[in-house]
Amino acid sequence: MNQIILVTGPARSGKSEWAEALAIQSHKSVVYIATATHDSDDQEWQQRIQRHQQRRPQDWTTLEVPMQLSATLAQMQPNTCVLVDSLGTWVANLLSQEEAMWENTMQELLETVQLVAADMIFVAEETGWGIVPAYPMGRTFRDRLGGLVRYLGSICEPVYLVTGGHVLNLSLLGSLLPVGE
């Protein structure tokens, strides 16, 4: 049976490093799915991408998948560990979708995740722990990512929170809320 893991936390908390360590511990062939796109005009963004690339083992396969995440996951082989980094970037890439289309996209991802025989590790940023964004697109991003993380968290085991230099296994420490609003 495949394992589905969620690693979440705030920016610069170490979530990607923890997810990478879990992928290494799987002792399987790793497919790293990067949801970010290259932007040669943004040097700081390029440096972030390079730091992630330099940390990864050379034998990992890297796929750049900014939008077609469900279709890509559906093609994964059983004896692999798939690391998706990150869901926040994927959600941002799809912000132009109307709400009904987004709901379909999210549902398709959740259904695909449960059908894929590969192990999967998802990295997701935590949003909404502070102020409510002052602009509609920011609120849409926060709400979509928050909802996706909650729904995905209900089918993942374990779910980790990385914050303050610590990794917490929420599956052991907490109780699962029913999915809904």
From TrEMBL:
Signal peptide: none
Keywords for the protein's UniProt record, in alphabetical order: ATP-binding, Cobalamin biosynthesis, GTP-binding, Kinase, Nucleotide-binding, Transferase
Active-site annotation: H52 (gmp-histidine intermediate)
Enzyme Commission number, as recorded: 2.7.1.156, 2.7.7.62
Pathway: Cofactor biosynthesis; adenosylcobalamin biosynthesis; adenosylcobalamin from cob(II)yrinate a,c-diamide: step 5/7; Cofactor biosynthesis; adenosylcobalamin biosynthesis; adenosylcobalamin from cob(II)yrinate a,c-diamide: step 6/7
InterPro entries membership: CobU/CobP (IPR003203), P-loop_NTPase (IPR027417)
Keyword Acyltransferase assigned: no
GO molecular function, one term: GTP binding
Binding site for GTP: G9, P10, A11, R12, S13, G14, K15, S16, A34, T35, A36, E64, D85
Any single GO BP term: cobalamin biosynthetic process
Catalytic reaction equation(s): adenosylcob(III)inamide + GTP = adenosylcob(III)inamide phosphate + GDP + H(+); adenosylcob(III)inamide phosphate + GTP + H(+) = adenosylcob(III)inamide-GDP + diphosphate; adenosylcob(III)inamide + ATP = adenosylcob(III)inamide phosphate + ADP + H(+)
Keyword Transferase (UniProt): yes
Gene3D superfamilies noted in UniProt: P-loop containing nucleotide triphosphate hydrolases
Residues that span the membrane, as ranges: none
Family to which this protein belongs: Belongs to the CobU/CobP family.
Protein purpose: Catalyzes ATP-dependent phosphorylation of adenosylcobinamide and addition of GMP to adenosylcobinamide phosphate.
Protein name: Adenosylcobinamide kinase
Organism, scientific name: Fischerella thermalis JSC-11
